[in-house]
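Task card 7
Instruction: Convert sequence to structure tokens.
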Amino acid sequence: MTIDRVAAFQRERAALLSFCAELSQSQWRADSAAAGWRVQDVVAHLGASCRALFTPAAITLLTTRDIERANNIPVDSRRHWHWSQVLAEYERWSGRTLRAASLVARSPARALRTRLGELGSFTVGLVLPGALVFDHHTHLRHDIAHAIGAPAPGTDAGRMSVVVEWMLAVLANQLRAAPPSWLRAPVCLELYGDGGGRWLIRPDGTIATAAGDCGPVASIRGNVNSFPVWATKRVDWRTSDIAISGNQELLTTLLDSMNIV
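Output:
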């Protein structure tokens, strides 16, 4: 399946706007599952991230060594805003980001490489808008909807493919930046469901699509929709729908160390 990141971002943006249109004033002010952030703070983060692409704030995101702290700064400056201001900023700047992403996808600039803080180096076409699709997906479904007891918006194979693509790119950078001495053999990651697939996580930090069966290697198998939850440490992988087989010590160490932000 061809991955269309722009279409995925367009659908995630529409899902967030539709969800926000139904929120009550008390729900806007309710605590989210993101520590220290209310629901409106999460939306403020998404809007500020889109706006930053068009301002000098982008330099901070590209060069920071603490992306979590860098994300907190614009949220803190918006805490006194009314939720309607937060939503208006998001709608305006996410629309501009969508148009910019569409232009990038059709230009040679998509193949250029850029850093995104300590997350490492990526092609521009992957960052814009792949990182935003992942951010929208996890924040909307797992930090907002779950926290206020609202039904989580649906997704599709196209969006999940982009989410997984971004997460594996970050994981590969993490493994290459600090090669774990204990990862002495490849591990097969199988994510079943729409947008899933099979990948080989190799000792050198590369992650490659596996053609068919991964072969006789240690393996992790789980639903693609739960991958963004346990791989970001929102829940412990032991309580998720994961099945592991093969070298238990290796797999446990890998899963315990995995924290994709």
